[in-house]
């Protein structure tokens, strides 16, 4: 594929992944997201290009392939032997576990320096846009009681305005910041994953402040915790006195804002110290029975995916799932702090670790664009690592 076309494709992917993830339309009650349409339409083309132009050097991909294949095998065997609960869940699983990893792997074969520059520039502009739009929409909701909505762009279809209100986005007297994601938790989760890389790319401090403010205004305990983790991983890379001061100041502002919002609008200590994990403890019954092998048809995945995977696929399936999940860390050095790595690779490792940590509480695995953002980080790490090895081949 010509470089100009590959750059244009990567630019489009980033726009609909980061800036307009909920754009699309509805067929009946089924949402058709632009991002997933791109994946469906482009993957066959990329696959044909891959088959017609064999890649001589697999490079870093070989280090994580063995971590991905076992869960694919378990998943396929479960589908063939036990089946699925309904077509919607089957489609969600296929997109998350098979199509998205395949798409981003094939896309990585088009990666070069000019494509990288396009991706990084587009990513920076998109995060600026969603953070600013999120703040404006939040203030608009507080003042008028209604979110800003752009049909087909910020919500799917022309008649889906109510979708924002169907996603538990109200907290006491306030409305969560949802930006273009229609859900405050999903917005905050994705932004937390991208924060270490974004802070590396963004040159203007005002936009960094706006991003952190938008994450605080999601009014989500999970997002607040992920924001703190993202700041620790971002400023903890090559810690200097200046970075330490920035880290302490950032954490102080975040914690103070969280305490203020909780005390005045969200219920105080009851909100901050909620032992039910936002009612997610209701899913722990899935651990009551020991399961070694898959026993359930492919179905929904709860906010804590490890519980659902164990219940549906058994202990063997859970082990394979964990290997699948950590596969991006198996591409080269997994450290978010090692000074032997390029800054971008450290930031990507940090983003992956943030999602793995978030999965202990709420990873929104089957919801657009949570796992796609995770796949995007894996794509960038694979592409950067491959280019690094081609430039500086390992000693044999």
Using DSSP, what is the number of strands? 4
N-to-C terminal Cα separation, in Å? 32 Å
Strand content: under 5%
Strand order of the largest sheet: 1-2
Radius of gyration, whole Å = 21 Å
> What kind of sheet is the major sheet?
2 strands, antiparallel
| Helical residue percent band | 55-70%
Instruction: Output mean pLDDT.
Output: 85
Q: What is the H/E order? A: HEEHHHHEEHHHHHHHH
Gross morphology: globular
Secondary structure class reads mainly alpha
Count of helical stretches? 13
Ranges with pLDDT <50 over ≥5 residues?
A: 390-396
Which secondary structure elements does this structure contain, and how are they paired or packed?
Blueprint: H1 3-19, E1 24-27, E2 30-33, H2 34-52, H3 62-81, H4 87-108, H5 113-144, E3 170-171, E4 174-175, H6 184-201, H7 205-216, H8 221-235, H9 241-266, H10 269-272, H11 305-326, H12 343-358, H13 370-391
Antiparallel strand pairs: 1-2, 3-4
């Amino acid at each position: 594929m010509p470089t100009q076309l590959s750059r244009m494709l990567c630019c489009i992917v980033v726009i609909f992944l980061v800036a307009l993830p909920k754009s699309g339309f509805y067929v009946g009650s089924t949402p058709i997201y632009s991002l997933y349409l791109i994946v469906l339409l482009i993957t066959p083309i990329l696959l044909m290009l891959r088959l017609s132009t064999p890649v001589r050097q697999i490079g870093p991909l070989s280090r994580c392939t063995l971590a991905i294949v076992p869960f694919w095998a378990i998943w396929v065997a479960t589908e063939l032997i036990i089946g699925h609960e309904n077509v919607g869940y089957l489609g969600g699983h296929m997109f998350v576990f098979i199509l998205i990893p395949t798409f981003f792997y094939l896309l990585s074969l088009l990666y070069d320096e000019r494509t990288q520059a396009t991706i990084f520039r587009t990513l920076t502009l998109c995060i600026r846009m969603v953070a600013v739009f999120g703040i404006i929409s939040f203030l608009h909701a507080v003042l008028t009681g209604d979110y800003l909505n752009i049909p087909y762009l910020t919500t799917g279809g022309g008649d889906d305005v109510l979708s924002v209100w169907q996603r538990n986005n109200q907290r006491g007297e306030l409305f969560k910041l949802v930006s273009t994601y229609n859900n405050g938790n999903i917005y905050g989760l994705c932004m937390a994953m991208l924060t270490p890389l974004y802070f590396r790319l963004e040159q203007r401090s005002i936009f960094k402040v706006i991003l952190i403010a938008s994450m605080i205004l999601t009014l989500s305990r999970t997002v607040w915790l992920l924001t703190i983790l993202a700041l620790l991983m971002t400023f903890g890379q090559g810690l200097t006195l200046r970075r330490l001061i920035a880290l302490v100041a950032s954490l102080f502002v975040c914690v103070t804002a969280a305490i203020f919002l909780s005390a005045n609008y969200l219920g105080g200590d009851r909100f901050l110290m909620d032992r039910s994990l936002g009612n997610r403890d209701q899913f722990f019954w899935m651990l009551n029975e020991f399961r070694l092998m898959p026993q359930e048809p492919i179905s929904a995945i709860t906010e804590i995916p490890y519980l659902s995977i164990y219940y549906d696929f058994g202990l063997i399936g859970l082990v394979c799932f964990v290997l699948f999940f950590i596969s991006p860390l198996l591409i080269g050095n997994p450290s978010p702090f090692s000074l032997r790595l390029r800054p971008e690779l450290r930031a990507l490792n940090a983003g992956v670790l943030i999602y793995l940590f978030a999965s202990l509480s709420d990873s929104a695995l089957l919801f657009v664009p949570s796992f796609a953002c995770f796949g995007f980080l894996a794509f960038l790490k694979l592409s950067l690592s491959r280019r690094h090895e081609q430039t500086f081949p390992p000693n044999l």
